[in-house]
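Risk mitigation, structural track. In case the binding assays with 5-O-phosphono-beta-D-ribofuranosylamine fail to produce interpretable data, a predicted complex structure has been prepared as a fallback.
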Amino acid sequence: MKTLKIGVLASGRGSNFQAIIDSIETGYIPARINLLITDNPNAFSIERAEKQGIESLVMLPKNYVSRDEYFSDIAAELRKRDVELVVLAGFMRIVGRTLIEAYPNRVMNIHPALLPSFPGLHGQKQANDYGVKISGCTVHFVDEGMDTGPIIIQAAVPGRDDDTEETLSERILKLEHKIFPEAIKLFAEGRIGMQGRKVVIRGAVFDDRPLISPPLGRDLQEGSEEKGPACDGL
Ligand code: GRF
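Fallback model:
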């Protein structure tokens, strides 16, 4: 199989970047990462790239007169390295038109909520504050909206009564590290197609088992009303 050439954009710690590196290392994804671009000179992602011998560039928006110019320069750097798929691994900016036009349906993002719910910053906090009983993460193609592009893969976790933003984020992050490499693998294998705005995966076998949260038939013994986090009665 052909090796897919990837470019990664990241602003921070880069745990998703690392999960992608690891999946390539083990041969799970037939790809190589040709370039890391970051908008943050202190991003830990830079060290991850160095360790792996991946070239990295720090590109600062303040050095550009407009967003369009910034992202067209990013597109140019990616193109120079023959990048075929752009992966946003915790890139904390809205991607400009010029990059999306250069890579239509070839820019992927991971979002820590089940889109279209809770787009934007702090998806996990939004979900926890709202009190949803099922939350999760989404890998999608990037369009010009805020987390609005076609959805490739999603994974769900229960929202627990005793969750905090941190505990929910931790549970979601574990799944992010699974589904982001998976989406890239599907792309690399040429399994992703489009039907209008809907992504279809060639060869996918779907599992119809539901996730119900809280689960049915849970133990509601005498006296268990007292258990669980502090709350107001009805
Ligand atoms: C992740 O939660 C991702 O969903 C969001 O930004 C965070 C990046 O984390 N887009 P990391 O840098 O990959 O560890």
